[in-house]
Design brief:
The complex is a heterodimer of chains A (about 325) and B (about 280). By secondary structure, chain A is mainly α. Chain A has helices at about 1-30, 35-40, 50-60, 65-75, 90-125, 130-145, 150-160, 180-220, 220-230, 235-245, 245-270, 275-285, 290-315, and strands spanning about 85, 90. Chain B has helices spanning about 1-10, 10-30, 30-35, 65-100, 105-120, 120-130, 135-165, 165-175, 180-215, 225-230, 240-270, 270-275.
């Protein structure tokens, strides 16, 4: 019950953030060339004049800015993100169809990079200043410094073009129409390169954090107590230090959602993965600013939701958290 | 100063990073001497593999990749430096005001900072450049706008703790005006963590810039590494060198700056080092 209250309170706290993001979207719309309706309809006059007039009226562009902002916020609250004339579909529908592939990519990346990052960080911390630690640190340094889109292209050169092991792009084999398990296997096959690319970059952050976190926890009093009790070093490390050291990793997972969505724009556009990132890339090229704004809004909402999940997860994992 | 070098050079990897960084700065400075022609000029046949004439080959239109990398070094380092400076300035002002005044000002400014940290930064940067139309200025603005919150939080924390120290309390009692206390008493003492975090931010800014120009959001008149990689994408199958070498340049630069930043951290924040070992 306490937990439910806590969650509700956190939900209420998220509302001002969402409102601020909507206001920011509105401001960005004002920054663009032409009025909001020009932006919404895209350039090149692909919208009919009647629709433009209707839009101008519905936005109340002759009204003062605060009325306009009000209109905009009412529209957004009804999840009316406008219409994309380039793609000939409502922005919300476009985003919803692309959401699942992106979430698939992100969740796989999160699991892969957090798991391996924690393992590497653990190994590095256990063998502090040995060759293992140094090797892992160098690996983390290099993978952190590598541009995502470049490593994606290099993977294509090596694994797709030269070795012919993996497909270069897309989410499924075109024209194969697999069903059931065959389809799952096919999608997994297409996922290997994009997920590996994204994971490599985030792996570095988890590795570094996990190493630092393990080292910090090792200096705590409770560790000395455990050692004084005569517990074997293995038990102290895995039972006591590891559990506490994992907490900051969960925070990082929440913090990284936004950055990962950004990374997916680059990775999806290289691998032709039909997600939000690819949609953003297409929107960029057709100068469909309204669609881009819609994607931005969706991504910001995803980050807020992810942070809520992390907060909730914390209440289960860390009993020290005060639910009041 | 001598002491500084002595401490810095104890960290071997930091010296290694500094060497690479100096070489890159030299390359950037000498770009016009080594490759006097405009990097956009078509010098050879398209897609020539690396040879003695074109050290790193040519791209799909016959532009020299080596020349592009040398001129791109200028762009990357310059944008990294300028965007970081703007972000540090902005972050220091906001974080400093929040930390010094506390109370309502602090609350408001930190809410703003949190908001900017919630927003997915790369997509926000893409959106900003797309709206402001791609140019050197808008790329710098976009990178600065998404990078300042880290500095703001850091500066706020420093200011909050320094404000309680005796020498600052003494200055307040003496009736020193706030701006003087901030600039003369607090800021100099908060400088070393700011320098360390700024040096690491340059690396992030360079990565961001390369991502933006890869998506075609760089200044169309200025050669950059991300643009080179983007232009080589469609000919990946036949001419791997167009994408490969600029990427290695980015990797080396970002790595070198990170190493230098860590080296600076060891020298300037000795407390943290002891905790780490």
């Amino acid at each position: 019950m306490n937990r439910l209250n806590y969650l509700l309170r956190r939900l209420l706290q998220a509302i001002p953030v969402l409102i601020a993001i909507v206001v920011l979207n509105f401001l960005l719309l004002q920054l663009a060339d032409g009025d909001a309706v020009d932006v919404m309809a895209g350039e090149a006059g692909s919208a009919t004049p009647e629709y433009l007039a209707q839009l101008r009226e519905s936005f109340g562009l002759d009204q003062p800015w605060y009325t306009q902002l009000g209109h905009y916020m009412v529209n957004m609250a009804q999840l009316d993100l406008g219409y994309s004339f380039r793609q000939d579909a409502p922005v919300l529908d476009l985003i919803l169809t692309r959401l699942v592939p992106t979430l698939l990519l992100m969740v796989s990346t999160l699991v892969l990079s957090a798991t391996f990052g924690c393992l590497l960080g653990l190994f590095a911390a256990v063998g502090l200043n040995t060759w293992r630690d140094n090797l892992i640190s160098i690996f983390a340094l290099v993978s952190y410094a590598t541009p995502l889109f470049w490593i994606a292209l290099m993977f294509i050169v090596v694994f797709s073009i030269h070795l012919h092991w993996l497909p270069t792009s897309g989410m499924e084999t075109i024209g194969a129409f697999y069903e059931g398990w065959d389809r799952v296997v096919d999608i997994a096959w297409h996922m290997i390169l994009p997920v590996t690319t994204l994971s490599l970059f985030y792996l570095a952050a988890y590795t570094r954090l996990m190493r630092a976190s393990m080292l910090e926890q090792r200096g705590m009093d409770y560790v000395m107590t455990a050692q004084a009790k005569g517990l074997p070093e293995r038990v102290v490390t895995f039972r006591h230090i590891l559990r506490n050291a994992l907490l900051p990793v969960i925070t990082l997972a929440g913090v990284q959602t936004g950055s990962m969505l950004g990374g997916s724009v680059l990775v999806e556009s290289v691998f032709g993965w039909p997600g939000l990132g690819m949609l953003a890339y297409d929107a960029l090229f057709s100068r469909d600013l309204n669609l881009l704004l819609g994607i931005f809004f969706t991504c910001a909402c995803l980050v807020v939701i992810m942070n809520l999940c992390v907060d909730l997860l914390y209440t289960f994992l860390d009993p020290r958290i005060d639910l009041q | 100063m001598k002491n500084f070098w002595q401490q810095y050079s104890r960290n071997k990897s930091a010296v290694f990073g500094l060497t690479i960084l100096l070489a890159l700065i030299l390359l950037a400075l000498l770009a016009n001497v080594l490759f006097p022609a405009d990097p956009f000029k078509l010098l050879g046949k398209p897609m020539e593999p690396p040879s003695t004439e074109f050290l790193l080959g040519t791209d799909s239109l016959g532009r020299s990749v080596a020349s592009g990398i040398a001129h791109g070094a200028r762009t990357s380092l310059l944008i990294g430096l300028v965007a970081t400076s703007v972000a540090v300035l902005l972050g220091t002002v906001i974080g400093g005001l929040a930390g010094f005044h506390g109370g309502k000002v602090d609350n408001l400014l930190m809410r703003l900072t949190e908001l900017f940290q919630t927003i997915p930064s790369f997509i926000f940067a893409v959106l900003l450049v797309a709206i402001l139309s791609p140019s050197l200025k808008s790329v710098v603005i976009a990178i600065a706008v998404v990078s300042w919150p880290t500095v703001a939080r850091l500066v706020r924390a420093e200011f909050l703790s320094l404000r309680k120290r005796e020498f600052v309390q003494a200055a307040i009692t003496m009736g020193m005006p706030s701006w003087k206390i901030i600039l003369q008493q607090i800021l100099p003492n908060a400088l070393s963590p700011i320098i360390v975090s700024a040096s690491l931010m340059i690396a992030t800014a360079i990565l961001l810039e390369s991502g933006l120009s890869f998506l075609g959001l760089g200044d169309p008149n200025i050669m950059s590494w991300g643009f080179l990689i983007g232009s080589g994408r469609s000919i990946l199958r036949t001419a791997w060198w167009v994408c490969t070498f600029p990427g290695i340049a980015i990797l080396l630069t970002v790595m070198a700056i990170n190493l230098v930043g860590e080296g600076l951290n060891d020298v300037l924040n000795p407390r943290l080092r002891e905790k780490d070992e």
